[in-house]
């Protein structure tokens, strides 16, 4: 039986721990067993039970206080993650070998871990060796997306992690519950964005001609019109001489409101689909009753259900 994992990524303060806590509670209502592993050696507080905590292996504070290292917060975190990569046996022993595991990995917020450092890529490869189907979940704060230029920055960060890790990735816009009704309506255009339209809407605010041309070039990269690599046919199952990245949902975002059960379930369904969760289960179509059976003893039914 396969095992399943979500790598919960995103900038610091994007709501990764809140996302994990919300998913644990939501899956609990669905009678699904979900575990969380904290991979942030600088974490202080989180309101979910942990299956494993990297701070049992190494902590940023200990690294920063070591007189022989003299690292700052960022350097200390990178050192901790590299130490973690050299001690994956600790994680394997902690996780065990339980079939059908579903684990959320609450990752650190330093973007360099997903852009040019090999640590997270090594983690993905090791999880795949342990028969995990891994999905990246990249979070951005909806309150951050108040201007098109900031949105483009968030999109590029998401694309960087996707290219680096080479796993299915679901991009999520968090903290929707903190927005007022006007802001929620305004932010809808960022969920399925047209990059050039957003740039034209903000063209008056760009005073520098060079900056405007740079932004247009970046939009072309994201949209795939200015930069379109000749991907081999094996990549997407077709001969794509000109690939538009948005056609493969690489820059689309799902809204995430931790107070909206239906919205949380939609996000979970997208992730489950990307890692093919539950494909081995045998689902049966429920039978429809045209009429209610006579003399139906509900007390007996609920009693038997509780004993089953």
TrEMBL record:
The keyword Protease appears for this protein: no
Keyword Zinc included in the entry's annotation: no
The entry's keywords: GTP-binding, Hydrolase, Nucleotide-binding
Molecular-function GO terms, alphabetical: GTP binding; GTPase activity
Family: Belongs to the GPN-loop GTPase family.
Assembly and binders: Binds to RNA polymerase II (RNAPII).
Role of this protein: Small GTPase required for proper nuclear import of RNA polymerase II and III (RNAPII and RNAPIII). May act at an RNAP assembly step prior to nuclear import. Small GTPase required for proper localization of RNA polymerase II (RNAPII). May act at an RNAP assembly step prior to nuclear import.
Name assigned to this protein: GPN-loop GTPase 3
Organism, as annotated: Takifugu bimaculatus
């Amino acid at each position: 039986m396969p095992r399943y994992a979500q790598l919960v990524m995103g900038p610091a303060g994007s709501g990764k721990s809140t996302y994990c806590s919300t998913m644990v509670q939501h899956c609990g209502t669905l009678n699904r067993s979900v575990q969380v592993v904290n991979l942030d050696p600088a974490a202080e507080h989180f309101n979910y039970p942990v299956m494993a905590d990297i701070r049992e292996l190494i902590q940023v504070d200990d690294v920063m206080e070591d007189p022989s290292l003299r690292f700052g917060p960022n350097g200390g975190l990178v050192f901790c993650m590299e130490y973690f990569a050299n001690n994956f046996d600790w994680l394997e022993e902690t996780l065990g070998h339980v079939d059908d595991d579903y684990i959320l990995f609450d990752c650190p917020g330093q973007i360099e871990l997903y852009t040019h450092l090999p640590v997270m890529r090594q983690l993905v490869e090791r999880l795949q060796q342990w028969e995990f189907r891994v999905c990246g979940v990249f979070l951005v704060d909806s309150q951050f997306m108040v201007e098109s230029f900031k949105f483009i920055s968030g999109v590029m960060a998401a694309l960087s992690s996707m290219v680096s890790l080479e796993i299915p990735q679901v991009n999520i816009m968090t903290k929707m519950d903190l927005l007022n009704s006007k802001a929620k309506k305004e932010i809808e255009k960022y969920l399925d964005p047209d990059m050039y339209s957003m740039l034209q809407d903000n063209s008056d605010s760009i005073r520098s001609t060079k900056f405007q041309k740079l932004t247009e070039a970046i939009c072309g990269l994201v949209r795939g019109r200015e930069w379109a690599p000749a991907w081999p046919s094996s990549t997407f199952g077709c001969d794509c001489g000109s690939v538009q990245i948005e056609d493969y949902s690489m820059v689309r975002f799902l809204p995430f409101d931790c107070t909206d059960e239906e919205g949380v379930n939609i996000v979970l369904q997208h992730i489950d689909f990307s890692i093919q969760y539950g494909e081995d289960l045998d689902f049966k179509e429920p039978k429809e009753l045209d009429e209610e059976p006579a003399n139906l003893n509900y007390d007996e039914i609920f009693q038997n259900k509780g004993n089953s």
